[in-house]
Amino acid sequence: MVGRTVKAAVCERYGPPEVVQIRAVPNPVPADGEVLVEAFATTVNSGDARLRALRVPRGLGLPMRLRLGLTKPRIPIFGFEVAGRVTEVGKAVTRFQPGERVVASRGFDLGCHAEYVTVAEGGAIVRIPENLSHQDAVALCFGGTTALHFFRLGKLAPDEAVLINGASGAVGTMAVQLAKHLGAEVTAVCSGANAALVRGLGAEHVIDYTTEDFTRNGQRYDVVMDNHGNAPYGRVKGSLRPGGRFLMVIGNLWQTLAAAGQKATITGTATNSDSYQTLMSLAERRVLRPVIDSLLPFPQMVDAHRRVDGGHKVGCVVVTFQHSE
Ligand SMILES: NC(=O)c1ccc[n+]([C@@H]2O[C@H](COP(=O)([O-])OP(=O)(O)OC[C@H]3O[C@@H](n4cnc5c(N)ncnc54)[C@H](OP(=O)(O)O)[C@@H]3O)[C@@H](O)[C@H]2O)c1
Question: In testing the pocket of ligand 1, which one of 56, 191, 199 has its CB within 8 Å of the most ligand atoms?
Fold first, then answer.
């Protein structure tokens, strides 16, 4: 409805969690090929916190500022993904109808930290299976799409040994489960406090990084995935078997240059409806389960950013919206 306002979490300068403010913004209106989603749940993830604080890997400050906004965020409403109900569809939309429950991503167009969100029908948007809540559906997406993307590019195969460093965060908890589902033998690296969790998700072996350095224990893997940024190629190459692949989910400029030309996958994640559909289907069959660190109501958006900034969330921080019927 044109002229109405809705609430959104707006961030008009780089800084600590407190720079995020809940404000009234114009109600988004779906274009011909878009749907309007009434948000029931979204996530605040490591990507949102990095954007807010302009916390980018060393050596990438200038290119990231050019992309994200030189002095302040170019896109002031963050949020990669949303789960909710379709309330309006554009004239050209054929696949969705008002009332349907969907989960969707706007990728780096962001804008999902708002009560209403437009999403292109041809983008990453799928229906939520009946046995999943909005919170569960949205919690699968950030880490799930990243893990799927890296395992596909890195060609993780059944019976291969994979080590996942940073196994208890949003990406790690999905990576452990997806690697297990693919038939790999999973070694998870996390703090001792999260050992039982990652075993429950399917890890055969757990290494507590506070007491053991996996790069010095003599074990070798077909695939090593670094979700934390402290295990660059230079450190892990001795842990790779012949033909082994390195999946660098995060790393600075120098780590990236050192890995280039090796059997390494270094990339941003492509989000599309195929990967969303895969995640929802696996969750519907209970093969994949969401791991939710905390559920916070939308007015506590600043607390959600604080939790992510702590660096020790377990899985995903989910933010929920209340709508009057
Ligand atoms: N390339 C891409 O497209 C892409 C996509 C998504 C994310 N990312 C990046 O990937 C990284 C991971 O994202 P995320 O959302 O999973 O982060 P996250 O949820 O914030 O990860 C938190 C986890 O990191 C673990 N951790 C902390 N210190 C560690 C250490 N020294 N060694 C191993 N693990 C440690 C923590 O485990 P404990 O509590 O057990 O310590 C915690 O569970 C972020 O840097 C993010 O920016 C990249």
Answer: 191
